[in-house]
């Protein structure tokens, strides 16, 4: 499955969670099997945790720390500047989330 298809399926899961409380509770409780049921590819050795932001709670997700060769001044500046943008930031890594930008081998967190 390519990144565009994976992102579309994740978007559908999010939309369903907004309209189906029982589905949302299952997703919050044990995400991996629910995501697989919806056609999202999850590696068997990857643990997935779903949390919900509210008007009173915001979750800050720390991406994996890049190795020293990847930790450039440019990357540090981009991460620092991300807070002032659309809450999406690029970090090197294998998984994608749901910011809608077409960078095929990058990870987008939003």
Describe the protein.
The structure is a single chain. By secondary structure, the protein is mostly helical. The chain has 4 helices and 2 strands, in the order ααααββ. Strands 1-2 form a two-stranded antiparallel sheet. The protein folds into 2 domains: 1-55, no CATH class; 60-110, no CATH class. The chain starts with a helix and ends with a strand. The chain has helices at residues 3-19, 21-29, 31-37, 73-82; strands at residues 89-91, 107-109.
How do you describe this structure in short?
The chain is mainly α. It folds into 2 domains: 1-55, no CATH class; 60-110, no CATH class.
Give the total of domains: 2
Strand content is 5-15%
Strand order of the largest sheet: 1-2
- Outline the low-pLDDT stretches: 89-110
Largest sheet: 2 strands, antiparallel
Helical segment tally? 4
H/E element string?
HHHHEE
Quote the distance from N terminus to C terminus.
21 Å
Structural class of the helices, strands and pairings? mainly alpha
Task: Indicate the overall shape.
Answer: globular
Number of E-state strands = 2
Radius of gyration: 15 Å
Helix content: 25-40%
